[in-house]
Amino acid sequence: MHATEPDLRQRLLGSRRAPDVLDQLRRLAGLGIEVHTQVVLVPGINDGEHLDRTLADLSALYLQPVMSVGIVPVGLTRFHHGSCRPYAAAESAGVLDQVEPWRKQSRKRNGSTFVLPSDEWYLVARRDLPPAARYDGFPQLENGVGMVRQLLDEWAGLRKSLSRDGHRSPDLAQTQATLVCGTLIAPVLEGIVQEWRALSGAQLRLVPVTNRFFGPVTTVSGLLTGQDVVAALCGLELGDLLLLPRAMFTGRYGAGDAPPGVTLDDMSIAELAAGVGVPVEMAGTLSEVLAVLTG
Q: Of all helices (H) and strands (E), which one includes residue 236?
């Protein structure tokens, strides 16, 4: 989506032939097709008053056909040599403040939040994430909207089971393992790992890995490469096991007889294990981490 102003949207898409997106949405509504939209914000280009216009136009099409609007900051790599830049912390807080009235208005009028900022805004701005009920069933999860909320809620459940009656699992207490993540989620995961250690006795360590392949401006765990992980862990005491984010790997993740996938730079689990000197497992949720640690 990016913008509903025709000239601005053509600029963002790099094409003067891009049609009026509102006309396209109305056509989809006539066909009975529901649409979840995404607005990628670029500092100084389609934010500010342009974002307000986009949200006003899309709100007018609520349910006919627009079901949700994801707001995502522009993602960059070291290969970008244009004028785009990431949002700073204060700017991210400003975007959240700008969209909050739209969210409140939609909840009051329609019973849904409708406007869904991605997790990155909250993490960069160091703001608390909304409760799960504000994500309308998580329709934009794959766009990075609500993943951290699900992580925090999952941990709340696991923490309760780990702390019940002061119980410490013998399996966990004997575990020495290292977990890897990107730099964006690291503060959240570090708090979880510290609590996990205290509750279970497990000797867990979290290592945030800076992305050298795409550049430090690329901070998400899913874009880490095998070579960066191996380089970051070189010389560290990793324990008995290394746990890597499942999102790092392409493929079917070992479903059926399929290979377990490779990283973006084509490293397999076996090659990673050889590179770091300990067994390597993938985990996409904290429950999967627990299953690996106790299995």
A: none
In DSSP terms, 206 is beta-bridged to 179
| Within a domain: 1 | no
Share above pLDDT 70 across residues of the chain, in percent, rounded to a whole number:
94
Least reliable range by pLDDT among 23-37, 152-166, 262-276: 152-166
Residue 119 and residue 182 in one domain = no
How far the first Cα of the chain sits from its last, in Å, is: 45
Amino acid identity, position 98: Q
**In whole angstroms, what is the distance from residue 213 CA to residue 235 CA?**
20
From residue 201, give the alpha-carbon distance in Å to each of 25, 177, 193, 194, 243.
54, 12, 11, 10, 18
Q: How many CB atoms lie within 10 A of CB 5?
A: 18
Return left, alpha or beta for 217; rule: phi > 0 is left, psi -120 to 50 is alpha, else beta.
alpha
Cα separation, 72 vs 56, in Å, equals 17
Q: Which residue has the tokens 């056509």?
A: 27
At 257 the pLDDT is 44
Q: Residue 169: its pLDDT value, please? A: 61
96, 208: one domain: no
pLDDT, mean of residues 264-289: 94
CATH number at residue 275: 3.40.50
DSSP class per residue in 48-76: THHHHHHHHHHHTTBTTTEEEEEEEEPP-
